[in-house]
Amino acid sequence: MQEKLERKLASGSLNFESFFSEKALQMKASEIRELLKLVETSDVISLAGGLPAPETFPVDIIKKIAEEVLTEHADKALQYGTTKGFTPLRLALARWMEKRYDIPMSKVEVMMVAGSQQALDLIGRVFINPGDVVIVEGPTYLAALNAFKYYEPEFVSIPMDHDGMRMDILEEKLEELKRAGKRVKFVYTVSTFQNPMGVTMSLERRKHLIELAKEYDFLIVEDNPYSELRYSGKPVPPIKHFDDEGRVLYLGTFSKILAPGFRLGWIAAHPHFIRKIEIAKQAVDLCANTLGQVIAWKYVEGGYLDEHIPKIIEFYRPRRDAMLEALEEYMPEGVEWTKPDGGMFIWVTLPEGIDTKLMMEKAVAKGVAYVPGEAFFAHRDVKNTMRLNFTYVPEEKIREGVRRLAETIKEELKRA
Amino acid sequence: MQEKLERKLASGSLNFESFFSEKALQMKASEIRELLKLVETSDVISLAGGLPAPETFPVDIIKKIAEEVLTEHADKALQYGTTKGFTPLRLALARWMEKRYDIPMSKVEVMMVAGSQQALDLIGRVFINPGDVVIVEGPTYLAALNAFKYYEPEFVSIPMDHDGMRMDILEEKLEELKRAGKRVKFVYTVSTFQNPMGVTMSLERRKHLIELAKEYDFLIVEDNPYSELRYSGKPVPPIKHFDDEGRVLYLGTFSKILAPGFRLGWIAAHPHFIRKIEIAKQAVDLCANTLGQVIAWKYVEGGYLDEHIPKIIEFYRPRRDAMLEALEEYMPEGVEWTKPDGGMFIWVTLPEGIDTKLMMEKAVAKGVAYVPGEAFFAHRDVKNTMRLNFTYVPEEKIREGVRRLAETIKEELKRA
């Protein structure tokens, strides 16, 4: 297949490159995606992916609802929808967020998008001028960097610890940026069970962040795909809960609480922002897929969502525990990792001097894969970290994968 | 609802506008969409929409396939997919295009997108530098103008007649642009049963367009959502059929041959172009909805698509006939219209001096709505035209709608 494609590529007499826009010429395929393609075809234990386990998909519920929707609502479910999304679903989500997070419905409007990835792109489109400062966590969700990058912001990266983004450092940076006359448009945070670290921003820091947003007049983009996947500890309200001015744009998704195949996410934000994002979305794809939206509506409205979340939690908790135990058992001294209360990822930090990207080949040779941490940093300036996923692979494989990884690291440490 | 929203908008203490990007500040809601919202709540006969009739949706087939897919392929259908799309569907579409249009599979790669609207946006992103010339039909599909506009091209609009884009005028324009040292990136055409005119580019002109593309070194974006909806006359091969170099990017969609609610379209193009568009799509939404893709795969592969197309045709043909007959019967002298062999639209031209946008209010007062033609022209410089849709409204209503419209026009002519 690859070979055939290469032949096709070579056969052209056209100068293909000459047609691309300047920005398109800068676009590069994600190296990690390319790397993972290789891994997925071998018998390597991959702790690299970011996929939910298909065992957590509520297939029977979806089947039942799909049958119902196609019997009773086919006209609507198969037709074009409005750009903002299917109104009953938007209302159901607003009610659900009010109940679950105490975010008053009267303060937000909900708009449906094609997965929260699309929300990131639309937010880039609507808010970022070239040169505007976008503040991100260091490390942060790499596809957010990828989405924002097109709009040419200046990224400023704030270090993380076990309580999330370091507010003291953020404050210093904000002061510095202010003195330099730079405009900060927003802070982007995966506030709970962060991707890639698994850590959660503390209650105190959430409040602090809102205060800083007011003081320095910026917005907060709160990306919250994981907070329902809590295996231990006490829930913390979303930052949006503390927002009394409309500074927080909240992103939710069905990918982890229903299934990613629906490509459905939502933005909950002030109507003034939603109105503009709606206009932007109209130009890029008219509306999110309607069939998926009508199914998702029944899923939320019928109480299936609330019923199903505990089952996902029960399925993932042993996997998280297995990974934490294996790390404890196998990892040599000098290796550190986060202990997430939820989500999908654990973040591992090796002694300085070890480059996890260079180490990858050796790990794969030993039969295990991970994501080198470098790509999660806006400036790619940290080399000794990696992200491990514990949701996709069963417990025994997690143990064996971590064992192989520890072995690789030990050899690497010896060499260093 | 509207009132409540206005209150919400007014209540903010934030300076919302100050956060928007320069480009977002330029974004305007489509006036037509706003207009149609009003119409849809009244008992006006709307010939304005662009919706397929829900009676043409193959609901029973979709139900059967959905059941099957969720029983046999749930793991895949509910999981994240690759950015290029579900491979069996991509292959099935490539085979289908080879069989149906004689476009050799070996020459194209098929990539799935979130409706062909997304293809337009991605093509803008990948090909247009600010100031690049994009040549469009005058009139053209207005959402294409909307998608491309973000990327700041210079639009050049080529007049149309009953055989599509005027190649003689195109050639003159190309020569002129060449002398002015301007770069033409691509010609955008809805080649068959055009939106909004309903006309089809003749065979001869298709070949001529390819020759001009070679001579002046530009690409062709062929948007082909309607060609399967042929009610009379002989099929013409897509322009892509004549493309031996990879200059044509072909856009297909399931919206008119399955249902719009899936939000599924495809691009068939040279692998070199597909590779770049794939990278662009990765940043904007990762992948198209997988459940829809797996259902669409069974729909094509199982032969349902080929079985279903004749049924859609039989459903729409009487509606087109009814509109043509009513126009013949009711319209006063001086009014002209196209006689499409297929598609969804008829284009009406009134005597010069009548502004259909200004006339709209009177038409609505008489109980009929249409889309004023102005917005379909890149430079909004033609005022005396309108688009009528004949797929959504039943025959009797079409007759009555055209009668009311003719009455409005007669009064307007008397006044003029």
Automatic annotation (TrEMBL), chains A, B:
The keyword Transferase applies. InterPro entries: Aminotransferase_I/II_large (IPR004839), Class-I_PLP-dep_aminotransf (IPR050859), PyrdxlP-dep_Trfase (IPR015424), PyrdxlP-dep_Trfase_major (IPR015421), PyrdxlP-dep_Trfase_small (IPR015422). Keywords: Aminotransferase, Pyridoxal phosphate, Transferase. Transmembrane segments: none annotated. One of its GO terms (biological process) is alpha-amino acid metabolic process. Gene3D superfamilies: Aspartate Aminotransferase, domain 1, Type I PLP-dependent aspartate aminotransferase-like (Major domain). One of its GO terms (molecular function) is pyridoxal phosphate binding. Residues 60-405 form the Aminotransferase class I/classII large domain. Pfam families: Aminotran_1_2. Its cofactor is pyridoxal 5'-phosphate. It comes from the Archaea. Homodimer. Belongs to the class-I pyridoxal-phosphate-dependent aminotransferase family. This is Aminotransferase.
